[in-house]
Amino acid sequence: MEPVTLGLIGCGNISDAYLTGAANSKLVRFKACADLRPETAEAQAARYGIAALGIDQLLADPAIEIVINLTVPLAHAGVSLQVLEAGKHVYSEKPFAALLKDARAVAEAASSRNLRVGSAPDTFMGGAHQTCRRLIDGGRIGHVLAGSAAVISRGMESWHPNPDFFFKPGGGPILDVGPYYVTELINLLGPVTRVTSVATQGYPKRTIGSAGRRGEEIAVEVPTTVNGVLQFASGANVSLTASWDVWKNRRIPFELYGSEGSLLIPDPNFFGGTPEVTDRDGEWQPVDISAQPFGTPNRSLDDGKSVADYRMIGVFDMAAAIRAGRPHRANGDLALHALEVMEAFGRSSAEGRHIAIESTCARPEPVPEGTGEEVFLQG
Ligand SMILES: NC(=O)c1ccc[n+]([C@@H]2O[C@H](COP(=O)([O-])OP(=O)(O)OC[C@H]3O[C@@H](n4cnc5c(N)ncnc54)[C@H](O)[C@@H]3O)[C@@H](O)[C@H]2O)c1
Questions:
Q1: What positions does the domain Gfo/Idh/MocA-like oxidoreductase N-terminal occupy (predicted)?
Q2: Nearest CA-CA partner of 260 in 279, 288, 283
């Protein structure tokens, strides 16, 4: 397959994951990057051997087919629209847009131009999550009746160099880390029909802890503890807690309860981990994920934990799908549906009622078993 040429807009913290992730790919190759801050683009360009361009120059380059949008959430929709207007496909970091109405405008612009939109997260395509998908589709825990998901911490201001966006519209735990859980749930269970929640704000200000800006304060503009419930078209009833107000907790992060057993799902912020499954009243058993690609640990976190981090496989799949003329998995319908669900958490709390979800989407096709990016050439 002729590799798909990529451009990148937004050369901040997460851009290394994409630029290193593409380094040995035969499906894609980065040509150029751009940023509002030209010096940031120049630094990444020098580091990865690509060109640093102005945003308009990058969008005018006819060789670039997909632009990866790694800007901050409030800029996602505007930059994605610019990319589509330039006649290129766009793949955006999460959330797909800060506001649902802007996400709809992006989806419409793509469809009217016959272009593709993709969006992170692509973690649901990782080895652990695809193994969970196969277990559920194979009936291992029977009909999924219920579940519980919890993503709980003290927040992001301690480590990120510029953590302001986490506490502004488009941020908050539901839109920042919620996408991993909501997208994985849609991958496993299908579309959501209604949402209810209570959303509160634990602290009005946050104090930055990272070296360059230590001690600066951020005014918090979004809820930082959300307790909600999602009802799925399948009938499943799943609770989701997302909070940045908690120092310590002992919640089990992610589990599903079926008519024939239960399934413990590894952290959907990463691609690997060991699922565990039980029969009705049997013992928990670890599940081997090695038949699926993208589950082997390849990176150590600051606390020494090894994780599988393959951010970029959504783009590999999209590139192969463009060449083959098939749908890609981390697609706009999925991202739009997930965003409507996430926005409904805030609306439900503010309006004091359940919110019916208008959009729907198909579950993305399972990733074929095999090794590495070649699986995307199979479909
Ligand atoms: N940092 C992470 O670990 C991480 C992980 C997964 C996803 N993400 C997501 O990736 C996105 C970016 O996060 P980050 O941590 O890299 O942020 P960041 O603040 O480190 O980088 C964002 C970059 O985008 C640039 N930018 C902002 N608006 C722009 C515009 N209109 N045009 C061009 N450039 C613009 C900024 O100058 C900056 O260099 C966010 O949506 C975030 O949720 C981040």
A1: 6-117
A2: 279
